[in-house]
Amino acid sequence: MSLSDILGSALSGLNASQAGLRAASNNIANVNTPGYARERVPLQTGVTAGQVSGVRALEAVRIADRFLEATVTRRAGDWGSAEAVASSLDRMQALLGAPGDPNGLPGRLDAIGAAAIAMTGAAASAPTVRGFVGAVQQALSGLQTLNEDINMLRGDAEREFSYTVETINTLLRRIDSLNDTVARQAAGGRVSNGATDQRMSAVEELAGLIRIEVREGEDGRLTIDTAGGVTLVDRRLRQLDYPANEGSVQPLYPPVSLRFVEADGSLGAETGERLDGPAVGGRLGGLMDLRDRRLPGYQEEIGSLFGGLAEALNAVSNAGSTMPAPARLEGAQTGFAAADRLGFSGRAVFAALQPDGVLAASFTLDFASLGPGATIQDAVDAINAGMGGSATASFAGGRLTIAGAGGLGVAVAQEPAAPSGRAGLGFAHFFGLNDLVSGPGRHGPSGFLASDAHGFGAGEATEFVLRGPDGRALAQATLSPATGGTFGDLVAALNASPLAAFGSATLDPRGRLTFTPLPNLPTASLSVVADTTNRLGTGRSLSALLLPSGRETGLAGAEVRPDILSSSNRLPLARLDTAAAVGARALGSGDTRGANAFVDQLRAPIDLGRGRVSGVESYASFLLGQAGLDAAEAQDRLADMSARRSDAINRRDSYSGVNIDEELASLVTLQNSYSAAARVMTAATDMYDTLLGMMR
């Protein structure tokens, strides 16, 4: 080997050692940089003209395993979804209150039962009556506050959803830009480790926001798809398009569409693809699940609870009377017309009473005697005829009114042997003649049959949406009632709509619209998005009449009837003696049987709809327990997903991360190699000098 070959080999060794030292120094400098993969300089034997000529240092390469990086990406999406859900459900559980908390939902309902029991033990004294009425009002206020708080959570989820969409778009633009950088450097034969590291950090952050699949092309570019196969980045960038709405609460939110990005950075045409439903994964999917399924589900449960509470309390108050009896009973807004089918069975007792409780006139109306085709007006006429002028009934504007004549009071009671009933409600209860819980409409099912006229006009419409078990909108349908049609026609129209592909709609025995999903969709639910219907000008919509636990439960405007709230003696605790003869006392001032009835009714099972029959207090406990269980499951899943994500990151970093000890050992080895190459050069230089000296 010539001296020139020796010098060349030594020089190549110096260069290789320097390249290795630079890589090791760069690794140490980035030991705490997230997503950084350590570098190594590959060495190759130098060959010139078929002979070894030292060593060649190639471009530094990233030490990374794409399968470990893909595992981190997948688990980041699961963690992002779990974190969003767990945080919100924890807040939801706090809103319901802890078991035993008097200010929590079960505590407020328990207070009603306790106050009712107190009335029975103290002969319904004024303080105990005020305590009961106050407990009812506090429970209603608590339910309203809880409903508003859940709306606030939905608004927060929507606001965070919009922010997440913006963050995803920023990351997609960054990844696309780094894709270009990596591809250009690879095409020029240059190292792109820095850009690759930055790109992987952006991909990992993106994976926490939306579940993605990542593929690397031959030119170094990444192609990113959602878990559902929707392309986000390839050789052309897309952006998520979602209208900002300041976190407003809506019955149905628009889908997230995708648009191409033009060369100037502006949004172009739509791709025709949508991101809809929690299946998109990541934080975006978790927020969508909260906003569209979980939180509305809790609101529906609260609506059912309120409906059951109002029905239980009003059932007792409408079965009773004050002493003295009121001069006028004015019913709630029913949404009915005088020509509507009456539909009652059994018998009801109507009485006119003197201020001291003595019966002035009485009439027992047997609804069977009116015939199956009887109307509400027929019942009004029968009451007026039977009372002989002592009391007068009228029905106008959707309200039934009964007023006493000549200073007489009026009372309505059930005939004990055959109590009246429609949709499970007595006559006074159905029309809301003596409600304890009042509001803009009546509380309870309507009892409509498919053959009843729907009473809606032209131009009115109700928009329905059917959601699957994951909260994704499966189908939508808009009902536009034709003038003169029946409720059966509306049900048939629903069953001829896109909803029919997922189940069938029917009217249940209490006149409520129910949707029975197909067996493979056991938890699909039907809800109302928008409703402009107005039955016969009464202000009662289709959803209020057929879906009493849906969007129009009446909770927002519910309150204890103002006159009862202001005066304790207005609570109807007395019971009419239906067997009393005219001239005998039919109401007593010491009668507090209504207090016992409140205690019993609050514990009695009530049909809450959707196949649920439960007592009010037990249903509140169930709701609290379900919220606690959901929150605990969400926290457990978050802990599990956090552990799995951390494990994936540790595995990746143990392979590609920087280990200071290893890098220091590498530095020592490279320094020794550099010193050895330098000594070879020194020896070769000395030999060369010796040869020159010999020539002199």
User: Any low-confidence stretches, pLDDT <50, length ≥5?
Assistant: none
Strand content: 15-25%
Q: State the end-to-end CA separation.
A: 24 Å
* Overall mean confidence score, pLDDT: 86
Could you say which structural class the secondary elements and strand pairing correspond to? alpha+beta
Helix content percent band? 40-55%
Rg, alpha carbons: 39 Å
Total beta strands: 25
Describe the main β-sheet briefly.
3 strands, antiparallel
Shape call: elongated
- Spatial strand sequence of the major β-sheet: 5-6-7
Q: Tally the helices.
A: 14
Short summary of the structure?
With 696 residues, this protein is α+β, with helices and mostly antiparallel strands. The chain is 45% helix and 18% strand.
Give structural notes.
- With 696 residues, the chain is of the alpha+beta class.
- Helices cover 45% and strands 18% of the residues.
- It has helices spanning 3-29, 66-96, 105-121, 126-187, 193-209, 282-319, 376-387, 427-431, 487-495, 542-546, 562-566, 593-603, 616-656, 660-695; strands at residues 39-40, 43-48, 51-57, 61-62, 212-216, 222-226, 231-233, 238-241, 256-261, 267-275, 328-330, 347-353, 359-366, 391-396, 399-404, 409-414, 437-438, 462-467, 473-479, 503-507, 513-517, 525-531, 559-560, 606-609, 612-614.
- A hairpin with a 4-residue loop joins β6 and β7.
- α4 (126-187) packs antiparallel against α5 (193-209).
